[in-house]
Amino acid sequence: MPAPPLSPSPAVAVLEALGYGLFVRDAADGQLRTISQPPAWLAQLWPALDAPGSVLPVADASPFLENFLLDAAACWAAAGEQRLSSGPWVERDPQGGESELEATALTLPNAGGAVLLIQRLGEEFTDRKSVLQKSRENVLINQRLNTELQKKDILLHCIAEDMSAALGNVITSLRLIELEQEPAKIRRLLDLAALATQEQQSLVAHVLDAFADEIRCLYGGSASDSRRSACDVATVAQETVAALEARFREKRVRFNFPTPTPASARVAINREHLERILTNLLENALDAARVGGGVALRWKVETDTVLVEIEDSGRVLPPETSERLFSRFALASSGAANAETRLHFCRIAVENCHGEIGYEPRADEAGGVYTGNIFWFRLPKSPALVSR
Amino acid sequence: MIQKKVCLIGTSAVGKTSLIARFVSSIFQDKYLTTVGVKIDKKNVVVEGREMTLVIWDLAGDDDFQRLNLSYLRGSGGLLFVADGTRQITLDQVLEIQSRVVGAVGSLPCLLALNKADLKACWEIADEKITDLRAAGWRVLSTSAKLGTGVEEAFGELGRLMLPPIT
Question: How many Cα atoms within 13 Å fall on the side-chain side of residue A302?
Answer without folding.
Answer: 10
